[in-house]
Amino acid sequence: MMEGLADLYATYQSTLAYIGLNGLLALSIYTSLSCGQLALGNAGFAAIGAYAAALLTMNAGAPFPLALAAAAVVPALVAIPLGLPVLRLKGIFLAIATIGFGEVVRIGLVNWDYVNGAQGLVAIPQKASVGLIWIVLAAATLLLWRLRGSKWGFALEAIRQDEPAARTMGIDTASYKLAMLMLGAALAGLAGGLEAHFTFMVAPNGFGFSRVVDMLVFAVVGGIASVWGPLFGASFLTVLPEAMRDLAPLLGIEPGPLRMLVNGLILLAVILFLPQGLVSLGARWRERRAARARRAA
Amino acid sequence: MQQVVNGIFLGSIYALFALGYTLVFGVLDILNLAHAAVFMLAAFVALALVGHGLHILAAFPLAVLGAGLLGVLLERVAFRPLRARADSNISGLISSLAMATIFEAVAYLVWGPNVSRFPFGTIPESQFHLGGAVISRLQVTIIGVAVALFVALTWLVTRTRLGREVRAVAESPRAARVLGVDVDRVIAWSFLISSALGGAAGVLYALAFNAIQPDMGRGVELKGLAVIVLGGMGSMPGAVVAGFALGLTEVFVVANLGASWRDAVSFAGLFLILVLRPRGLFGAAALREA
Amino acid sequence: MAMSRLAPLAAAAALLAWASPAPAQTVVKIGAALSMTGPAAAYGAQQKAGIQAAVDQINKSGELKGVKLEAVIEDDASTKEQGIAVFQRLINKDKVVAIIGPTLSNTATATDPLAQMAGVPVVAVSNTAPKGITDIGDWIWRVSLTEGQVIPGALKAAQAKLGFKTAGVLYGNDDAFTQAGYSVMKSALEAMGVKTVGTQTFAKPDRDYSAQLTALLGQKPDILVVSALVENASGIVAQARQLGYTGPILGGNGFNSPALIANAGKAAEGVLVGTAWNKVSTEKANQDYVALMKARGHEPDQFCTQAYVGVQVVADAMRLSGQHTRAGVKAGFLKVKDLPTPLGKFSFLPSRDGDHAPAVQVVKDGKFQIMQ
After folding, report:
1. Chain segment C106-145, per-residue pLDDT in tens
2. Which fold has domain C26-145+282-355?
3. Distance between CA atoms of A155 and A167, rounded to whole angstroms?
4. pLDDT in tens, A103-160
5. Which of B4, B76, B250, C65 is 20 to 30 A from A107 (CA-CA)?
6. What is the pLDDT of residue B286?
7. What average pLDDT score do residues A227-239 get?
8. Complex confidence, ipTM
9. Which of B114, B120, B209 is opposite residue C42, by nearest beta carbon?
10. Which residues of B touch A99 (CB under 8 A)?
11. Which residue of A has its CA nearest to C204?
12. What's the total number of domains in chain A?
């Protein structure tokens, strides 16, 4: 029995770790979205965090906590010169500019011989455990959750709803937006640094456009009205492929492309029918039950 | 000289791809990320038709028409239900992403992951020399088809009733509705035209490089984005000029700096244009900044 | 009455039981982490075909007495995230005795340390990065030759025949496989005293290489040396010919695929391929393999063949050690010597990398042929 449990944990521990990592990445997209900014440079920030941390532990012999701190700080600093000009752009234009930033980071790493180009950094010591990843995620969640109820949170919500109006109310919209971009960059960088020290390697191909699309999908599928949505979306979509591995033989199908199809259909269904994300399902269900109870009474 | 030919050829494909991309953006302010998937599916449809013994001259218009209908489907399923929402440009981006994923999955399920090509002899292969450059007749044909489509589209937009309505909706859907324009119909037509152009680009791309794969849209997707930003989002002449400009720039960078820098230059350029001149080279002075 | 009607059935059942071996067989699972979706999906499909063919063949031949092999093949979606999940699953849930794969070198550097820590033998069948694979530890073995074992020999053989003095190099720089291939080409050319007149790169999604090729051909190299994946290779060859280049083109492992000839057509004529698998080898093991795959209706490429050999090597290790456990497979690997495979006589080097003779092929009359 104990052995069975140990095997079960060992089988799914990487899934647990990736729920944590993807949760952090989903939150990193959420920080900008919470003030209405669609910034899609987070794969680039995650790459910067991952490489900064890995280079520090491998080439400079730095202790892991220091490397992890750098994984958060370096991308946050990079976000300043990036954010100052691009945050003046709105909507889709901000998205495109930040996609451009992410691609420049990836191409830069591919062309940088010191970090082995496309082959990436390998044999990184495994320092991050599943527990540590979850502690970092919990801390980030707590921070963002507290932020929401605070004065900051109200300012961010005001910016999200109507930026010019927020400005006339005396809210320094530019500073708030930049601060959230930096926070998002730090979270993405942390995820990158943790991932590098969990999976033994980092390579530029792991940080392409499709990675940031994944992050956005996590957040949107879960719902971006609260901090719980991105967490739920990341967990759901990380577990889904593993669940499909178990289901596929029972249903007698090849998972492969089907997994892609299911992902696309879920995303479409959520955006069409559940604009508040999957987390709003619970609320809807409760409402309906309450309504039925009222009718019964 | 050869490099100029290379650049013009590459540019004509970028331009054709971006033209449809930017048309939808101009009308709806929505980035249709499924455009690259339509590009890919049209190539597969043309391949399947040629495989059934159809001549390419018949298969090409049919595949383009198919792509156009796919665009109408896309609009009905992924965009129309979202139009009333306040954040429709972000939710539209995401639903188009969902459609792109579904299209790509379908291509994997139907055609598998391998590179396919048109059978040999689909297009007669011959080439000629011009001022030291080698040009194939296929390349000339492709550039010719692209130019013909640009001209046809310009005529459509500037000279026809539908074109006037498209421009009216792009300007302000509300005002257009007041003027008696059937906005839904105009948007559906825009998608049809946009996707047909994307499909045409896909078939020509597949013919030129003889490589059809479920992820073939990925290579042009981000390049197309750079082109429409450079040209000014929503601007059709801008997309054409910027398409050729990007094609020539890329070739120039490869020839002088080496190919490693090519993509970095494209994206850094995209970035700079957005920051310094958000309206692009030809865009109207629309409100792009908050 | 019922009795007599059942009698023939009973007789048939008895006959069947006699004809087929005793059902008291141990099922031994071999895991495989392959890229069935994502950018490397085309390779994964080939590898899957090879593994299944090998497992069926070995079960049919009965060379492992009392053992029935079963392949557990999982898709890693060409990502390290799912690659890790697949490895954990194969190691802890399916309890496989060995793992074949993963398809991509990048993924291998993330997954193989897990197998090393758990003590599960891994057989890499398509990882060609010279560093960072087998040096992970003593449980990691490799069948695929690194580009370092193939390219220098191919270049020398080609030079002896063609006598080129200058080379133009083109490689995919956003992929671990092609980038590693390039490093080997570069040092091999230097060692041979061949002058590299130009180096250009492309990215995996590219389909137009004419700008790079024009720049390279402008330097008038005697030979074009290319490190590319299958999906890029045919386009590069076709476009080089279209630009009027008539000289030799030499490619690495990525060129060794029927897709090259299928997609480049006449343009592929005269292309030289340094490769781990000599498809036209007349050795019996290879002839049998080619016939087997033909009977199965699958046209194999090098990736299919290497995956096939991966299973063969694991089975042979079990036979040699007489154990079908993880430790047994590893102990058996040490004893594998001159195993006849479609790749040639196979042994492991002390570095746990595969050792067999590479080949240089040339495309002639629409077919890969051995270079004379």
Report:
1. 999 999 999 999 999 999 999 888 778 999 999 999 999 8
2. Rossmann fold (3.40.50)
3. 10
4. 999 999 999 999 999 999 999 999 999 999 999 999 999 999 999 889 889 999 999 8
5. B4
6. 44
7. 95
8. 0.89
9. B114
10. 222, 225
11. A205
12. 1
This prediction's pTM: 0.91
CATH code of the domain containing A34 = 1.10.3470
Q: Are A120 and A201 in contact (CB under 8 A)?
A: yes
Class of domain C148-275: alpha beta
Q: Please give the pLDDT value at position C256.
A: 83
Count of positions (residues) in chain B: 290
> Is the pLDDT score of A277 beyond 70?
yes
Residues of C in contact with B211 (CB under 8 A): 207, 231, 234-235, 263
Listed by start position, the domains of chain C span 26-145+282-355, 148-275
What value does the mean pLDDT of chain A take?
91
| Residue C13 scores a pLDDT above 70 | no
Distance in Å, alpha carbon of C84 to nearest chain A alpha carbon: 7
Sorted by where each begins, the domain ranges of chain B are 14-219
Residue type, C365: D
**A104 Cβ under 8 Å from any chain C Cβ:** no
Task: Residue A225: give the domain boundaries.
Answer: 2-296
In chain B, pLDDT over 70 holds for what percent of residues?
Answer: 97
Residue A243 forms contact with C (CB below 8 Å): no
Q: Do domains C26-145+282-355 and C148-275 have the same CATH topology?
A: yes
What helix, strand, coil percent values describe chain A, rounded to 5?
A: 80, 0, 20
